[in-house]
Amino acid sequence: MIINIFAVCKLLGPTLCALAVVALIPTLYALVSHTIGASVFFMMACIAFIVGRLLSFIGNYGSRNQSQIQMVLTIRELFLFTTCMWVLIAFISAIPIYMLLPDVDYTGALFETASGLSTTGATVINHLDTRPPALLLWRSILQLLGGIGFVVIAVAVLPQVAMGGMNIFKTESTYFENSSKFTPHMKTMSIAILGWYLGSLVLCTLAYIIGDLDPFMAINAAMCTVATGGMMPVDASMNGMSPFVHYSASFFMFISSCPFTVLIAGLSGNFHKLISDQQVRGYFIFTLLVALAVTATLFFRNNYDLERAFRISLFNVVSILSSSGFNLEDFTMWNPLATLIFLVILPIGGCAGSTSGGMKFFRLQVCASLFRTQLVKSIHPHRVISPQFNGHPLDVATVNSIITYIAAYFIVALVSSFVATALGLNITDAITASITCLSNIGPAFGPELNPSSNFAGLSSGLYILFSFDMLLGRLEIIPVILCLTRMFWRN
Q1: Least buried of 55, 201, 216, 444, by fewest C-beta within 10 Å?
Q2: Looking at residue 173, what is its pLDDT?
Q3: At 239, is the secondary structure helix, strand, or coil?
Q4: What is the end-to-end Cα distance of the chain in Å, rounded?
Q5: Strand, helix or coil for residue 101
Q6: Chain centroid to CA 479: how far?
Q7: Is 316 exposed, middle or buried (0-12, 13-18, 19+ CB in 10 A)?
Q8: Are the C-beta atoms of residues 282 and 365 closer than 8 Å to each other?
Q9: Helix (H) or strand (E) holding 393
Q10: What confidence score (pLDDT) does residue 400 get?
């Protein structure tokens, strides 16, 4: 057998049992706050636990020699494990949304959980202000879990998952494939990343409380922010909140879209690594320049005062680039130039190794380096020169993987746009919705799906399509596509 299914089941079991424990948080909140939903979330926890134990039993029963299975895990099993883990968690996590909201069918609930787990931030739920608080808390928790990635959490707290070695990280993000680790120990790295993530959550929550948000809103908004999810528990999103909250959100969205390992290295005293990192430096400069360009359009074309123009521009630019997708005014209604700018930056995303989605900024930097290299070779064909990143030459395998990903991104976006159009969406909605779901951004740019609306009212086929797009984008396409090919299972 090419794929060791029993080993995959053995990894999935503890992960789903851990999900059952997490589901007890909204259960307890509903009980303490005397609101509805406790029984539903407890039932979901039981389902997750039973499925997890069943998978563990299958894994243990099918393995005659447990230590041997631990040694023969290949990248195929790890790819399959990661893909199945995200899909199973999305399907199980949709149960309470489906049961608590009579106006949302199961495919809509699946879209909601896929959006939360992938930190896309798109929603199918209307009138969020009147929905059960435990359900709103669950949406925020899903974003928090999906933002950092289940693999990082699993390696940090579940010894069974760590047996995959460093390859386990590659199944959820290609960032770890060609980047140097700030620590040689995988579990230590996972714990450090988790510590940084939770520390950011605490600081962001305090900032929102200082900005006059109540504790429930502050903790939910903080989870949406540090996860760069943007799925707020109110319809107004960030509209109507104080400028202090807007600036705080912009700051935490930005740092959450920077590489975890580089930020931790900077906090550990290696500030040179933080300042000199090409990706972080380029991302900061690009974000600032785009924000200033949008500020200029609001100041000169929409007659905003300078502070408001800069604050709203900075917030929305960081929100789109970090793939948070918070709503602060409808930027498609400002002016054509501002709309075009946001359309251009829609698929870019933040830095690799962060909570943000999109194509990732470092891939564009590598493409720019390739472009410069080819220009030089056109003039000096015999000159020995190669594309570089962070001052080091890029090997052929890295360049090929980046080109493969970008090609796969546009092919998937094109196919998804065709399918969405065939399922009834107009062309603009189909294209921008496919890109925003694949990039895990949130808002689309069409006449029906835009920052002022949500994804409620779509057909079941569209919900399934966009749910697949969101999970595909979160796992950076290639691992999921591989699991669907014949060569993955036979060759």
Answers
A1: 216
A2: 54
A3: coil
A4: 10
A5: coil
A6: 15
A7: buried
A8: yes
A9: strand 392-393
A10: 86
* Residue from 212, 238, 215, 211 nearest 33 by CA: 215
- pLDDT confidence bin for 153, thresholds 50/70/90: low
Q: Can you say which residues are annotated as belonging to the binding site?
A: 119-120, 229, 440
Partners of 392 in the β-ladder: 389
Helix ranges, 149-276 (H): 150-157, 167-170, 186-210, 215-226, 243-256, 260-267, 271-276
Mean pLDDT over each residue of the chain, to the nearest integer? 86
CA-based nearest residue to 23, from 122, 97, 111, 118: 97
Number of residues that this document lists for the chain: 491
Cβ neighbours, 10 Å, residue 471? 24
Which residue blocks in 302-331 are alpha helix, DSSP H?
306-321
Q: Are 223 and 316 in contact (CB under 8 A)?
A: no
Q: Give the C-alpha separation, 213 to 219, whole Å.
A: 9
Q: Which of 440, 202, 212 is nearest to 324 (CA)?
A: 440
Kindly report the CA angle at 310 between 307 and 311, in degrees rounded to 5? 80
Identify residue 260 by its one-letter amino acid code: F
State the number of CA atoms in the 13 A half-sphere of 302 facing the CB.
22
Question: Cα separation of 479 and 385, whole Å?
Answer: 32
For the record, the structure tokens of 82 come out as: 């990661």
Alpha carbons within 13 A on the beta-carbon side of 94: 24
**Three-state secondary structure of 327-375:** CCCCHHHCCHHHHHHHHHHCCCCCCCCCCCCCCCHHHHHHHHHHHHHHH
H or E segment and range at residue 392: strand 392-393
Tokens of 85: 């883990």
Distance CA 269, CA 280 (A): 17
| Cβ-based neighbour number of residue 408 at 10 Å | 15
Please enumerate, by residue number, every residue annotated as part of a binding site for K(+): 119-120, 229, 440
Which region, left, alpha or beta, applies to residue 379 given φ > 0 means left and ψ of -120 to 50 means alpha? alpha
Query: For residue range 420-429, what is the model confidence (pLDDT) as tens digits?
Result: 999 999 999 9
What is the model's pTM?
Answer: 0.89
